[in-house]
Specification:
- It is a single chain.
- By secondary structure, the protein is mainly α.
- It is built from 49 helices and seven strands.
- Strands 2-3-4-1-5 form a five-stranded parallel beta sheet.
- A hairpin with a 2-residue loop joins β6 (about 375) and β7 (about 380).
- The longest helix is centred in the first third of the chain and has 19 residues, at about 100-115.
- The two termini are about 65 Å apart.
């Protein structure tokens, strides 16, 4: 490819075409030099020319050199004379010497060479007898036909052979000489070689890398004999057109960018691709799993990324390593140094690292760049860099890494650059004073760019090699702060390592205060109490405002999340702030998350007439303002969770859900499993309150799976309670029982998380007929909530659970008492709807429809679809008992459909018997599997308005209710439904698929 012009010039040179630089007939030997970087195709070009001229061209004597043979005297001459007898064997006896005579002459020259040089490298002048003997041999051959000598990699030819070649050229014993000449890394060309390669007259051919168009033609040729589409390119005619403006992003451009146009590397990529094709048979569609040549470096897994760097396989890496090894021992060592450092931007530092002179380093780097291994000072392909590092002996890497780190540090490199060498191998860092400081600075630099995983690695190594105990303690504290985000499973042990310094008073008060919540999360209450005492005891009579504010925030956190601990240590915090809320003078002007959460939970205990609802709105607004101005970080993560809980407890479910989803996406994108797990646990409770059972179950399971139990600490109460309650609501009582049997920290029951757990366990006990156990859990939950001054039904509606349990036990009076107590107290719309449903069960039959109708209205408005299905089911049963089958059937059918759509399988099955006469499609066993649907194109043809009306109708709304909900007339609703029936080919309202955009129905 792209060698036609060069082939033509060399062919003309050999045949001595008129007007060329050299002709055999002009009476003097001539030389053609083919130059270029290693593996650029010089040898292939030479061989191609010799093949084309073999039949009609001159007699060819050839030799191939190598660095290993450079110190063998007359090595090239011996190769040339070894070819002479075979070349002359076919000639008549009168025109050539016999094979024996030629061999004898060759042996004589070799013997003289051995005697004069003693078998070692020697650049002394060659004796005249040997020069004349070699010239005579060539003259004898040239007497019958012209002689062409071809030497590959002449830079490695021994000096004695170079003397012989120069002498023969001057005597015209040889018609022409063609040599390939590449870089000799680390060596300067001898004067003799330089003179040989730069005669007054001669032909110079510079072989460079392929252009993008040339690479494209190679791909085209490969596509002509292989799977054309799999190669990821179209065939390109093999002409001489040089289209240097090939568009970027094409397979040819990607391959050129990865190889620099080096033919050897391009062929390596092609071989890898062919191998993958052979190992992956096509399927029935003719497609294969083989990625296109323009695929990403991870093409083994991602075969459909056409614009990334090509997949680098075994052949490509072998080709790259072959080239690097061809640069010689110095070249390999320098390439390994570049791979370790990541670049060759500092040649002097690189030279010191590998023990070479700077001139040699610059030569090797230039050679690697010419060959396409490097692009500028860096490797073009990361896998090549990794392969070169792996070529180092295992015991050599740690020493080189440490030496590189020291050299970089002495040269004033950035801390992250130095740290990359210290972290580059699993070994101990150098035992030098500067190491911990540099690693600490590197950690701060990594944190500034949100590379927390790198920062944690730097801090760990800094801690391991730090000699100063106080400095090591501060490193441990910093590590405990950040490790939760990336390695939450290792966080508890890291926190535990600080307790000794905390007890001895060596940990600064600010760090001790931050440690308190970490200790409480892990259930280490005694250690947390000790930490609080340490801080309070160290306070001066007039503590600074910052520390006082932090102590106040701690008090609020204890009151809203760890209230039992506040009972234990609250007296210690009283001197700091003795009132219920901090005085305005000492309060931070910015709203705080702890204040918002505490304010919402404490709302039910405020005196009558203080406006609990208005206070909730105020605190919820604070929480939303904080979320809108806060980015998720280690410092803000606890506050973010508190704000989400404040919104949820304030019955701002839609707002809380939006923020939770946004923050969960951010945590996932930033690779923070600790944050993601806790956010999913909170988000599961939001879905549960919406009655979206399948979604709640999925989120809770993912949350629990993401962290091991020891990392959850007392916080496990959040995801576990959600999963117990949702499994119970779905009727999967076996799964719920297994979850209840899981061991949980005893300290969890002294926290707000324990309240969620007690309520969820009570729901499970109630659903499985263990009524007295359920009553115990609900009452225990209520007693703790009242004692801790957080008796909010939005936290856990324990009175509803007690009333429902008494109803199951036949205690209608007790059930009504607790239900009415709930209705007269702190009750939001959703909990009011749940309470009215239970109250209806305790009242006479004729009063039930009115109470249940109110419950249906509230639950429908609040979007609790599981609660709505249960209320509709009870309403249908009430009408049935009252002898109104028409209304009963309407409400039961609507309850049946909603139960199926939200995943309440047990309720759905209990209602299904009465719906068997309905011409409804068969339903799946779980909410994760969609019901039978019309053909996708038909559903996709619905407009947004038609889809919304159809979804509401499918969930049992009447035409009038749909009109009121979406603000259109009943006539318009009927027109929409008529078009929907026609588009999806159904004839009855009950044929509408329940799974048709349930979220649209829920939010319309």
């Amino acid at each position: 490819m792209e060698r036609d012009e060069q082939i033509e010039k060399l062919t003309s040179f050999i045949f001595g075409a008129p007007g060329t630089a050299s002709r055999f007939t002009e009476g003097a030997g001539r030389i053609a030099v083919i130059s270029g970087p290693v593996a650029s195709g010089k040898t292939a070009l030479l061989n191609r020319v010799l093949e084309q001229t073999a039949d009609t061209g001159p007699t060819v004597l050839s030799a191939v050199t190598s660095p290993a043979e450079q110190r063998i005297p007359f090595g090239v001459v011996e190769q040339l004379l070894r070819d002479a007898p075979r070349t002359a064997a076919g000639r008549p006896p009168s025109q050539t010497r016999s094979y024996d005579e030629v061999s004898a002459a060759r042996d004589a020259i070799a013997a003289q060479a051995d005697l004069t040089t003693d078998g070692l490298y020697d650049a002394a002048p060659v004796p005249t007898e040997i020069l004349r003997g070699f010239d005579a041999q060539l003259a004898e051959l040239g007497a019958h036909e012209k002689v062409l000598i071809a030497v590959d990699d002449v830079q490695y030819a021994d000096p004695q052979s170079l003397h012989c070649l120069a002498y023969a050229l001057r005597r015209a014993a040889v018609g022409a000489l063609i040599v390939t000449h590449g870089p000799d890394a680390g060596g300067a060309p001898s004067q003799l070689l330089w003179q040989l390669l730069h005669p007054p007259r001669g032909l110079h051919i510079q072989v460079g890398p392929l252009s993008v168009a040339g690479v494209g033609r190679l791909l085209g040729a490969a596509a002509g004999s292989a799977n054309h589409s799999a190669l990821g390119t179209t065939a390109v005619p093999l002409d001489n057109t040089q289209d240097e403006s090939a568009p970027t992003g094409t397979p040819a451009a990607s391959l050129h960018a990865a190889t620099g146009g080096n033919p050897l590397l391009v062929q390596g990529f092609l071989e890898d691709h062919r191998g993958r094709q052979r190992s992956t048979p096509p399927d029935g569609t003719g497609r294969t799993d083989t990625p296109p040549l323009g695929a990403d470096a991870h093409a083994a897994e991602h075969a459909d990324a056409p614009d990334g760097p090509p997949y680098a396989g075994e052949h490509f890496l072998r080709s790259a390593l072959i080239y690097v090894h061809r640069t010689g021992a110095d070249g390999l060592r320098i390439a390994q140094g570049v791979a370790l450092l990541g670049s060759a931007d500092a040649p002097s530092l690189l030279a010191r690292l590998v023990g070479a002179d700077e001139r040699t380093v610059r030569q090797v780097v230039a050679s690697l760049a010419d060959a396409g291994i490097l692009q500028g000072a860096r490797f073009r392909h990361g896998r090549v860099q990794a392969a070169i590092v792996e070529s180092l002996a295992d015991d050599a890497v740690p020493g080189l890494r440490r030496r590189a780190a020291r050299l970089l540090y002495e040269a004033g490199a950035a801390p992250l650059v130095v740290a990359a060498q210290l972290l580059g191998h699993e070994s101990h860092a150098p035992d030098e004073e500067w190491v911990p400081r540099v690693l600490r600075e590197a950690a701060h630099a990594a944190l500034a760019t949100q590379r927390v995983g790198l920062a944690v690695r730097c801090l760990r190594m800094a801690e391991s090699c730090c000699r100063d105990e106080d400095e090591r303690m501060l490193l441990q504290a910093t590590l405990a702060k950040f490790i939760w985000r990336v390695e939450p499973w290792a966080w508890p042990q890291q926190v535990k390592s600080l307790t000794g310094a905390m007890r001895s008073g060596r940990l600064p008060p600010a760090d001790t205060l931050k440690l308190v919540c970490d200790l409480l999360w892990n259930g280490w209450v005694d250690d947390a109490a000790t930490a609080i005492r340490q801080v309070v005891d160290a306070l001066p009579d007039a503590p600074d405002a910052t520390l006082a504010a932090e102590l106040w925030q701690l008090r609020l956190t204890l009151a809203s999340t760890y209230p039992a601990v506040l009972d234990q240590v609250g007296g210690l915090l009283t001197p700091v702030h003795s009132s219920g809320f901090p005085p305005a003078a000492s309060e931070d002007s910015r709203p705080t998350a702890a204040t918002a959460l505490y304010g919402v939970l404490n709302g039910a205990t405020r005196p009558a007439g203080t406006g609990t609802g208005a206070a909730d709105e105020d605190f919820a607004d604070r929480a939303e303002r904080i979320l809108s101005s806060t980015r998720l970080t280690e410092e803000t993560a606890p506050g973010v969770r508190a704000c989400l809980m404040a919104l949820m407890y304030a019955d701002r479910l839609s707002t809380a859900t939006q923020w939770a989803d946004r923050l969960l996406a951010e945590a996932t994108d930033r690779g923070a499993p600790g944050w993601a797990a806790t956010l999913r646990g909170t988000r599961a409770h939001m879905s549960l309150r919406r009655g979206q059972l399948a979604q709640a179950r999925r989120l809770a399971e993912q949350s629990l799976d993401q962290l091991p139990p020891q990392a959850w600490g007392v916080g496990i109460g959040m995801p576990l309670s959600a999963l117990i309650e949702v499994s119970t609501a779905m009727g999967d009582h076996e799964a719920a029982a297994e979850l209840v049997d899981r061991p949980v920290p005893e300290e969890m029951f002294r926290t707000r998380y324990g309240l969620h757990y007690l309520h969820a366990r009570g729901r499970h006990q109630l659903a499985t007929g263990r009524h007295h156990a359920a009553l115990t859990d609900f009452v225990a939950c209520g007693e703790l909530m009242r004692r801790w001054r957080m008796d909010r039904s939005t936290l856990a509606p324990w009175r509803v659970g007690v009333a429902e349990t008494w109803l199951a036990l036949g205690g209608h009076e007790q059930a009504e008492r607790f239900a009415r107590e709930q209705l007269t107290g702190d009750t939001g719309p959703r909990v009011r709807g749940l309470t009215l449903r239970v109250l209806a069960g305790a009242r006479p039959l004729d009063e039930r429809p009115a109470l249940l109708a109110k419950a249906v209205t509230l639950l429908q408005r609040e979007g609790d679809w599981y609660g709505l299905a249960r209320a509709l089911s009870d309403l249908g049963q009430a009408y049935k008992q009252l002898g109104d089958p028409a209304r009963s059937k309407l409400h039961l059918r609507r309850a049946w459909r909603i139960a199926e759509s939200c995943g309440a399988q047990e309720l759905y099955r209990s209602l299904q018997t009465g719906q068997t006469a309905q011409p409804a499609p068969s339903r799946s066993a779980t909410a994760e599997t969609e019901s039978a649907l019309p053909q996708a194109p038909a559903v996709a043809s619905l407009t947004e308005a038609e889809r919304r009306v159809a979804a509401l109708a499918a969930h049992g709304y009447t035409n009038r209710e749909i009109g009121e909900k979406v603000c259109i007339t009943v006539s318009t609703v009927e027109q929409h439904l008529t078009r929907v029936y026609r588009k999806i080919n159904i004839t009855h309202r009950q044929d509408l698929p329940v799974s048709l955009d349930i979220d649209v129905a829920h939010t319309a």
